[in-house]
Amino acid sequence: MKTVILAGGLGTRISEESHLKPKPMIEIGGRPILWHIMKLYAHYGFNDFIVCLGYKGYVVKEYFANYVLHNADLTVDLARGVTEYHATKHEPWRVTLVDTGEATMTGGRVKRVARYLDKDEPFFLTYGDGVADIDLAALAAFHRAQGRQATVTAVAPPGRYGALEIEAGRVQRFIEKPPGDNGLINGGFFVLEPSVLARIEDDATIFESGPLEALARDGELAAYRHDGFWAAMDTLRDKNNLETLWASGEAPWRR
User: Fold this and answer.
1) Has residue 164 got a pLDDT over 70?
2) How many CB atoms lie within 10 A of CB 26?
3) How many Cβ atoms are within 10 Å of 172's Cβ, its own excluded?
């Protein structure tokens, strides 16, 4: 199965860094969050990626074009004009980078990469700013078992603030960022059948408010519940929290 990653948005809520680079290229532990997402998919054997580019897409292209250069020892023979690579750290990835336009909406970006997808095989779709410890092989198996056109991963977002547990007017304990109100949200990490592409009209189609809502009305949208770790990097605070987790060596999504 191929994996489509949406990596073309502006990332306005984390503009402290996104004014220099696209949001998926903001680094966690010295690596773009895009790399972390791809490592998660690769852990489950999904190594064929299609990255939808838009805002500052050239930064993503340059990163992958120079990936081997930046992850290997090398000898440059200036006299002969030859470069020899040593101890290269190759990822077993095939990465297709597609310029899907700066102003294109999420649905339009998916439509624009249709020619790179297999016509008779489902594909993953995810956002370029979220990580989780989700079992992607189980997600794919769930999708096939449901027999629906699409599957969305449902997650319970963490609470934004700490909470007080109070009894008889006294604080019993302080709970650091408990779960929210138990409502489930779209956590990304979709599996889609190729037939979903027909529900996307043009570049102006927002996948979440058009095709996704229609799929739900038609009974064609399954929900895979993920109760483990999930986090989206929407703000600089989110980025710093993920950075702290990674530095601890115990990041839940680490593979």
Assistant:
1) no
2) 23
3) 10
